[in-house]
Every structure is written in structure tokens, then in C-alpha cells.
Amino acid sequence: MSNGKINVTADNIFPIIKKFLYSDHEIFLRELISNAVDATLKLKTLTRIGESKTELGDLTIEIKIDKEAKTLTVSDKGLGMSTEEVDKYINQLAFSGAEEFVKKYEDKADGAAIIGHFGLGFYSAFMVAKKVEILSQSHNAEAKAAHWECEGDPEFTLEEAEKAERGTDIILHINDDSLEFLEEARIRELLNKYCKFLPVPIKFGTKEITETLGEGEDAKEEKKVVDDIINNPVPAWTKAPGDLKDEDYKTFYRELYPHTFEEPLFHIHLNVDYPFDLTGILFFPRVKPNMELNRNKIQLYQNQVFVTDNLEGIVPDFLTMLHGVIDSKDIPLNVSRSYLQSDGAVKKISSHITKKVADKLDELFKNDRKDFESKWDDIKVIIEYGMLSDEKFFARAQKFALYQNVKGEYFTFEEYKEKVKDLQTDKDGKLVMLYAAHKDGQHSFIKRAHDKGYDVLLMDSPIVSHLMQRLETSNENLTFARVDSDSIDKLIKKDEDQPSKLTEEQINTLKPIIEGSVDKAKFTVMMENLSSDESPFIITVPEFMRRMKEMSMTGGGMMGMGNMPDMYNLVVNTNHDFVNNILSESDEEKQKAMIKQGTDLALLSQNLLQGEELTNFVERSFNSLTKG
Ligand SMILES: Nc1ncnc2c1ncn2[C@@H]1O[C@H](COP(=O)(O)OP(=O)(O)OP(=O)(O)O)[C@@H](O)[C@H]1O
Q1: Which ipTM was obtained for this model?
Q2: At which positions is ATP bound (predicted)?
Q3: For residue 59, what are the contacts with CB-CB under 8 A and spacing of at least 6?
Q4: Do 427 and 344 share a structural domain?
Q5: 217 — pLDDT class (breaks 50, 70, 90)
Q6: Which residues pair with 131 in a beta bridge?
Q7: What is the distance in A from the centroid of ligand 1 to the CA of 94?
């Protein structure tokens, strides 16, 4: 037996391990099980290359809790350690590794958060245990078994011992303040979080299953107690895409998110081995506009070891809306988050994923356009967001990003330009893309545009103003205009100017009369000679104003615009007979009533007449019907 003192340069790291790693104690289990998996995989390699003569046999790793003895044990049947190896790996290497780790993060305010994702190895056991024992038998049968024991201070004992089976038991004597880790439910929860897809079977207790024996009438159901293996050692993403059917991907989706009932729209299987290693499966979920997004859905693994499900800053933001798994052994496990964000390999991986996503969308679009169109509404938020946040993705998306018109037809941007360019180019050569945000709410304006033979796009996603701005900058001589931002003749100005039925003098007389009868703070009166079949009074919101307002609500745009009161243009069509009648009315009261009624009708046609104003309008209208 040898007593020793672990070689410490920092006074004593144990109190620090316990104290400052406070919030994420649970990761000790991931660390110990990862070590057990490593030891098992190493042994497999050694036997394969002929360096170990041992019979592999059953390699299942087992987790046991003993409430009475207050111990938690992780047992593997991996390559094991001799006393010399324990001294080298645990007393020296692992310790200095842990020491370095603790020193590095000691002063960091977000230390705990870092450790939640990236562990500190074997010594994390001391976060929850007052004493840790290692009992290990090397695969090299000539070596004696080793027993190591340490009570959370630099003193340890290391002695030769007896152990029948090859492999390592790590026995944790759980602290009184960590008794939760002796609860079966708690351990099961952790195994499910961190170990669900580890590559070696992991047993936690037993479970009862019902087996059907025999066939037909003789079939008998029999209950049987079997090992409870908590993981799937060969998850779908580790298999070749060619070996998987659509159903397998769906099954895997349910395995990943057992509490989600929605099925994914489609999947992307990532499989790269050069110039970096990357596997994974990404799913496109249905995303409705205005839906609360759950961004922590993609899980990052390193060789099937769960690292994190918070990929913020690691992959482009829009990709965090996808679901699924990314696994890469090139992703460093034991580093801080900020390091990960600036790591070269991670950057390459992230731009590769973006490209893959674009390729897949392009393929789906090309292979079955009808199907792609039917899914568009569910995926457009993600794609539009991607187009805005990633230049390369914007360029790639030109091939498959769709624009829908109010009639429900879909076009790529190029197709749409081609469709409308003849009729909707104004006298200055500018192509005007008309759009509506609500098919019903802006119906009267849409109808007027259709009457002229124009087409109207439906642009209703939350970030649409930003997207239009982006498209305007990359397309010269092209502009978007919402159908209700001006009268249709003004939106797409053509050469022929309408002659005015009213003289300039008459217009100058009428304008102040109308201004005097409406709320000046709300309406800017504009006298325009539109065609006589246009409405007499039209309410419009100038494109620039509205867009600035919308953009300031979704980020960007001019500061403070979001709080601006609603302001409208009241366009008065000087060519309409009703306007002529107002001018000829000599009774001032009647004239005012006519203007009021005209303005209210214009507001009503846009769903803008509300509350008391609406009640008054309805009453007034009924009264006038009664009077006949
Ligand atoms: N169950 C085990 N079986 C065999 N060797 C083990 C076992 N657990 C730990 N070891 C040895 O102890 C060493 C230190 O373990 P530790 O977990 O501290 O660091 P690590 O596994 O090398 O790195 P990481 O920080 O990624 O966990 C391992 O490299 C391994 O050699």
C-alpha cells in the first residue's frame, strides 16, 4: 500500500471544485460515464489491432445506486488500470488537468455556465462525493487490481487489491448535501439528458417487459424482467443515409423529442469526413409566423457525448430554429463557450451546415415544386430570416425562396419580376412590386390594383419589411409598395396624366373646407385628380412611414418610430362626382356631414373605423335610412 500526497501547486483545488462549480454539479455523471465509454472503446481498439488478448464479452456499463450505503457506482468492462496507471493517470495527469481547468475558470463570472457544457474530468466527482474509490482490473491479466481512495483532500491511498472482472468501478460516497444523486428518478433524468446516444450500452436497473410467446391461438403473453438499457448506442445519425428510410428519420425525431407530437417537414442528413468530421441530422419543423420559437432544440454531440443544446453564437442564428443533432469530434469539448465561438473548426462546420441546408432546399424545390410550395408557409420564416442574416445564404436562396401573390400562386423572385415587369414598370423605368399584408383587410385596394391588371403579392411574415429593403438594395430600379400606401395611379405612375374636372380655384376653395372638418393631427388632406371610378375619399399610409414603423418594432429602422401616433393621408379624388357635390353644397352643416360620411366610409373600407366613431357612423347611417 502506498500513501501519498497528490502533487499540488495550487493549495487545494477541492474546495474550489465544490464551491464554484456549484450550479452544475450534475455533470459529474456525464464525465464519469464518458470515461467509462472511452475505456471501453479503447479496449475494443486494442483487441482489434491485436495489442490486447482479452475476450471482449459483454461490455455493458452499469450505474448502481445504494441508498443505504449512500454510494453511486459507475462500472465498466473497459481496459482498466494497474496501480502504476492509476498513479499516472489519476494522481498526476487527471489532477493536473483538473487543476488547470479550475485555475482557468476560477475568476470567470460565468464559470458555472461554462462547466455546464464542458466538464473537468474525473475530479468533478468531488462536486458531489466526500470520498471516491477506484477499483480497477487491467485488461492485462498479469497486472494486479488497483484500489485508490481519496477523501476530497490531496491525501490518497493506493494499494493492490482483488477484482474478479476486468474493468473499473468508480464508487462515489455521496455528500449529505448531494443526496438527490441517490434518487433513481434524478439519475434516470440525467442519463436521459447526457447519455441517451452514447456508443456503449448503459444499464440502469431492470425493467419488466411483456413478451409474446408462440403464434396464433397458442400465443401467450409472458412478463419478463430484463436489464434496463437507457441508451441507443447506434442512433440514426451514425448510420449511412442510404440505410435509412423516411420512417427511420421520423422514429429518430420521436426518440429525440418524445414530448413533441408534430412531425418534422423534412430532414437533412449531414455526413462529412473531410476536411472536418461532421455527422448529424437536422429537421425542419413547422414554423408559423408569430409562433414562439424554441431555439434550444438542436443538440450538439462530440462522438455521441452530449455537449449542449444551446448553440447560440455557435451556428448561425437562423439555424438554431431547426431541430436535430450535430455531432463532430472536431468540436473541442473542454473549452469555454467564447473559445468555441471563435474556433476555426466550428466556423467551418457552421458555414458547411448553412450550405447543406441551402442545397437540400434547392433539391426539394427542384424535385417536387408542388410539394415544396405546400410547405413554404411553414418554413418561410426560417428561410427569410436566413436570407437576412447570411449573405451567402441570401445568394443561394434566390433559387428556391418563394413569393406568394394574393391569389395563392408562388413564384421565385426572378419569375415574378418577369411576370409583372411589362405592366408594373412606371414612367421612370422603376419596377413597382405591389403587396398587401392582409388579403381581407386591404381588399378594396387589392381589387383596384387587380382592376388595372396589376398583381399583388402577399407579404405577411414578421420580418418582411427588412426582407423588402434587402431585395430593393440588390435589385436596381425596383421598389415595393403596399397597395394602401397611395392611390393606385400614384403608386405606379404612368405618362398619361388625368385631366382634372375641378379648376385650380375650385380645388383651392374645397381643400380648406375639408381640412376644417377632419382631425388635423390625424389626416393630411391631399387633393388628387384620379380616375372617376376611383373612390372619392381614400385613406393611405405612406410606404416610408409605415415601413420605418414596422422595422423599428422588429429591430432596425429609425429609433422611436414605433411609438409614433397613427397618421394617414386623406386622398380626395377631385374627379369624383361626390366631391363635386360637396363643393356645390351651400348648406355648411350638410357639407360637413358629407365630408364626415366620406371620411368614415374610407376608414371603414380599411377596418380603421372603430369604437365610438363606428357606433356614431352606424347610428347616423340608420337615421338617414329612416329619413329616406
Ligand atoms: N473508467 C476508466 N477506465 C480506465 N481509465 C480511466 C477511467 N476513468 C479515467 N481513466 C483514466 O484517467 C484519465 C483522466 O481522466 P479524466 O476524466 O480526468 O480526463 P480525460 O478523460 O483524459 O479527459 P476529459 O477531460 O475529456 O474527461 C483518463 O485519460 C484515463 O486514462
Answers
A1: 0.97
A2: 31, 35, 76, 81, 96-97, 168, 337
A3: 40, 43, 44, 76, 77, 78, 200, 201
A4: no
A5: confident
A6: 173
A7: 7
